[in-house]
Specification:
two-stranded antiparallel sheet; 6 helices; 183 residues; alpha/beta; 10 strands; Rossmann fold
């Protein structure tokens, strides 16, 4: 299996389980995940998880990543206000790379027009008229966009990323390693 790489850029207010639960499953699947902070070394999640991370900068080679992961949480407000972060999203979208966003994360894609004519999900109360079709499921894949509804859907969301990047057979092996079975 070819090495796959995921980029996650977070800031204060990230949703702990969405960010770290997804990263844990991806790393269990031997997918490399680089985590950066948007603006400062020490950040705190919505529920008190404190992380010390390298700060994202423009010298990071985005071309080496297969997927951009956008975690949910209150952080989406700061992420959306950051021209640097928006430029990262645009890079992935314009270069036909995968973007996976959960909870509040898909709203950033919607505001950029990237959900137009797409099937997607997001936190229900944050669903606006993004020009696509909202699906009330834990996770939805449409083309290069993988979306998740909320913290409740983290495992299914993460396994959609694993399956997309590594294939269904390998994903099933990882599911079996944690006693997860589709029902």
């Amino acid at each position: 299996m070819e090495n796959k790489k995921v980029l996650l850029i977070i800031t204060d207010g990230f949703e702990d389980i969405e960010a770290l639960g997804t990263v844990a499953i991806l790393r269990r699947a031997k997918i490399e995940v680089d985590i950066f902070s948007l603006r400062k070394e020490n950040i705190a999640g919505s529920y008190g998880t404190n992380l010390t991370l390298p700060i994202f900068n423009n010298n990071i080679d985005l071309s080496k990543y297969d997927l951009l992961f956008i975690a949910g949480g209150k952080e989406y407000v700061e992420l959306e206000r950051s021209s640097t972060y928006i430029d990262v999203i645009k890079y992935f979208y314009n270069n036909d790379k995968y973007i996976a966003a959960i909870c509040a994360g898909p709203t950033l894609l919607g505001h950029l027009g990237y959900l137009k004519n797409k099937k997607y999900t997001c936190f229900k109360s944050m669903n606006e008229d993004f020009g696509g079709t909202y699906i009330d499921k834990y996770t939805v894949i449409d083309g290069k966009i993988i979306s998740g509804i909320s913290a409740a859907g983290v495992i299914d969301f993460a396994f959609n990323i694993v399956s997309t990047l590594t294939g269904k057979e390998y994903c099933e092996a990882v599911k079996n390693s944690i006693y997860y079975y589709d029902r």
